[in-house]
Structures
1.
Amino acid sequence: MGDQLATGSRRGLKPALPLLLPAYLWLTVAIFLPLSAMVFFSFMTDLPLAGKEWAFTLGNYAAFFSQSLYSTLLLASLRLGLEVTLWCVVVGYPAAYVLAKVLKGRSREAIFLLVILPFWSNGLVRIFSWAMVLREGGILDTALNAVLPFKINIDLMYSYPAVIIGLVHSYVPYMVLTCYLTLQAIDDSLLEAGRSLGASRLQVLKRVIIPLSMPGLIAGAALIFVPVVGSFMEPRILGGRTGTFYGTVIEDQFVAVFNWPLGAALSFILLAVVLIILALAAPVLRRAG
Amino acid sequence: MAGVQVANVSRSFGAHKALDDVSIDFPDGGFYALLGPSGSGKTTLLRQIAGFDFPDTGRIAIGGESVERVPVEKRRIGMVFQNYALFPNMSVAENVAFGLSVRGEPKATIAAEVQRALDLVQLGKLGGRRPHQLSGGQRQRVALARAIVTKPRVLLLDEPLGALDKALRVDMQIELKRIQREIGITTIFVTHDQEEALTMSDRIGILRDGRLVQEGPPEEIYDRPQSEFAATFLGDANIFRGDATGNGIRLPDGTAIAAASGASVAVGTKASCAVRPERIRISTGAATAGADIANVLKGRVSKRIFAGNNSTYFVDHDGQTLKVIVQNSGAERLAEGQPVVLSWSSESTVLIAA
């Protein structure tokens, strides 16, 4: 019986090989090789270009621990990731709920399109259009002063809130999509059963809907938190001087300072920290899910 | 416990009248079946009583208290859903405890009440299981325990046996009836299965196109249907159509059908007579019309279906096919194509106004 199963599965793998091969070939070429090169770089004193001298070193990793600037920035980036993720939950979850449980047919499709739209627009265009909205004398400033009877000065440009706004805008579709999928899978009769048992709408939300949609919340949070911690475009353009984060420092190493080894080392430290955080959070999140 | 009164309730969805001026008095402690084909409005009516939806017009009262604008969670009802709707993120015990814990009952009370409810549905040992680890019949029992543990005023059941296979369904019918008697709760049961309605309930309401067609005890509806629809939807019936004669009807071929009960219909107007297939006697010899066999018809067997304990004969008479059910008593079986004489009493015949 066991033998039959084993040969059966072996026979099942062979025909699947041609199907798997392209994906694995692509992953090897596109991700594994460059990443290995980066690991290699991160242990070098300088780039092996134009006959420059280089040697192996741990100095790039040591730099992270010897200069408090890096860990301070990493903490700031982690805090940024946490805040953006929270705002995405606050903004995205109710939208996903309305899409999955309230709207039907045409109106659902239309609203869905509005949510997905930022996904399809170019990231730079998205960020620069926020710049036009947020700057002093910009669209938000002008609109508010046209409505309000008193004069106010909205100058959110080059500030922490501007970075948050831009990042939330970019990443909220992930939260909407993952939560929408899990919310949609919840049978309406479960919500009706809850209320027939005397639970208010709020109690049904707390005890039935949120626990059942936890997998979507967790998936959305992971999809948002990880890239936001390493983000550099929104902080640089919308944050200006206040927009120095761990991600922008890494970008500087690659683009401005041309110190690839340090940039690579900082990247892998970030990767390690994020993996540790996710690993620590996993048991807690699994229990919640 | 409390009775439920539904008075002149109407509910439309767009142009569709799902409920049209329905009035039913559900007696306190009774088991009432709402019977009808799909789209008849039976589930809509149940949802009005539950409070998931409010009527456009009309009154609904539970225990004498008007509730037609009271939301579900304040109506103190218990409901069992067609798909059971157990919370998949909770254990069996947590499912049953849900209604008590949202009311903020103390933990010790909840534990005791949950155990009592699970014992009542004979699942006392399965409190720790998850719903997906249970069989269909067990889920059904959990859903029932969850619905009654809060001591609701009325128990609403939406086709709760629909998803079970035949053998299990019969078991659950008996079980459901036992539990209902034991706690004496007013129960309203939606079904499209006439057999289920007949065997379980002490009153039946038949709905069609959003209207109440007839209601009363099962025996009364079965013996004295007031419409062709009621006669054919609850059980099987042979329907004769003709002109009213004062004590029955005359068929187009001149045969008179005598009916001892039913509506009073003016002589000469269109009317029908309904006869249950098991009330008709079938024979090969000549049967003379007497006091107990007022009605005699000649015909020819077109088909016989053998079903073990009984046989169904389809008999052609003047272009109409009549159904006769005969208990298998060991007597001679009739062949297809054989000429036969059908006879039945006027007491077995119900006159129905067109």
Note: Chain B is about 25% helix and 35% strand.
2.
Amino acid sequence: MRIAICARQVLDPEVPPSQFKVDEAARRVVPPPGAAPVVNGFDLNAVEAGLRIRDAAGGQGVEVNVFSAGSGFVMDVMKKPLSMGADRLVLVDDPALASADATATARVLAGAVKLDGTYDLILCGRQASDWDQALVPIGVAEFLGLPCVTLARLITVKDGKARIERTLPGLVQTVEVPLPVVITVSNELGEPRYPTLRGIMAAGRKQPVMVKLADLGIDAADLVPKMTLTRLSVPEKRRTVEIIQGQDDADSGRLLARRLREEKLI
Amino acid sequence: MPGVLIAGELAGGRPAGVTAQLITAAGRAFPGHAVSVAFCGDSLVDVGPFLKTLPLSRVWLLQHPALADGGSGGYEAPAEAFAALAEHATPDVMLFARTDFGANVGPRLGFRLGASIAQDCTSVTAGVQGGTPTVTRPVYGGSALAEFEMGGTGLKVIIIRPGAYSPAALEGGSPEVVSFDVTAVVRESRVKLISTVKEAQAGVRLEDAKIVISGGRGLGGPEPFKQLAELAGLLGGAVGASRAACDAGWIDHSHQVGLTGKTVSPRLYVAVGISGASQHMAGCSGSGTIVVVNRDREANIFKEARFGVVGDWQKVLPAFAATVRDLGKAAG
């Protein structure tokens, strides 16, 4: 069985909001100095999902390969899935992909996956922590002609079928689908495993497979976004907080309760 | 028929609240345009007389056994049915709500038809000339707002965040009700729905609670959530949690509040040991009053709070709970 994981390099979402800056004129987010990007968190959940399926098969006969389409990749960052245990990393690196929209990104990812051979499962994070669109996986499925099941918290593969538990507000839905299928993974699946020292060493020795747009028969000129970003801003937070300060922490707790009662909030 | 086509959803045999919200959005963003709605389902023949009074120009009915429950699960059938209708009716704009249905069907159909797709929008305007729609959507976990102009001449698929618009009244019109035959386009779904299980929930539902007590990474482990639960019980509220606390396994994910968890808007939201990452605030910033207990005065969440205590929750919370009890006795 072959599993493809789609992963995206993003600005670290753990950057403290006080350091989150937008260049309004250039309409882009300015990363804090020295901040390294990360692999999108939900994509690491997808890597974990793929590795668990391989573990469940006894580690044999399951290939887990990671695909990314973007620009300005930081190799140490993008190799994280390899250090967790993924087999290969395939990168489509082109300046045109820096500002690509979901349609372009999905087309490129679908093309790269197809070029790499037959896959049974294509796993993606539920959404990327930069643009929060949750569109690319559905596009990959559409361009590959596959069904797409979103928001998985558990995936089991048996007899050519995947059984998926979907996590929805207030309920859990179980579906079954024949392979191949595109599945998006949510954080409820469980935390991505830590890279082992052996994994890090192995990842260090691996070279990513570099794919060009031309290899996919895609012209950079066709990747122009359909929508124009006309404004990017940080919403203002106007509230001023009233700090309740007692003689010690316990006293602050008592004063807080009384204050909330005054306000008829409790 | 150009204009605006709303992908409707039914709940209990009536148009869902989100569909009423889309009617408001369509009216505000595209005044003077023909607005129609389409509903899909297993059998809509007897769905109800309300269809005939919806304040719209046309109601489309798409019926097929594979469209039962809106095609829930893989949503292949509704994507096929709505795509066929879009090709037939040639709307300029299609509106979906970002429900499970809309978040799956809207993009699928959009990619299939080569449309511009705007996901999770909190506002739509038609632009100065009343032509190209402009949408606003929160990005970077809610840290920033992005405005996009949906240029071009093709179909625009706009998926709107539930709650962004108030619901319209569902009467006062006399639309044509038209059945659109989808038997030729809807295939058997590859994704089969096996079961749907509601989350077991003790006490007040988190989404309905008037008071929510939430804990985060600062609590340090699963044990403190018992104290939070006691306090919530005392106040008739529910317990929430940050994603970090859920991912660490300290509390079940059904308590997760945030962009990818539950969205809550209680009267009072008490955040204990939560730093206030944007993705968490996205789930609770609609709360009436936010109260923070945190050691770190620099924590982001103080910026969105009305009351705050800078201190150790282990000392603050028991005293807070004891005082709540005393106040309760005094009042009782």
Note: Helices of chain A lie at 41-56, 75-78, 80-84, 102-115, 136-144, 197-205, 249-262.
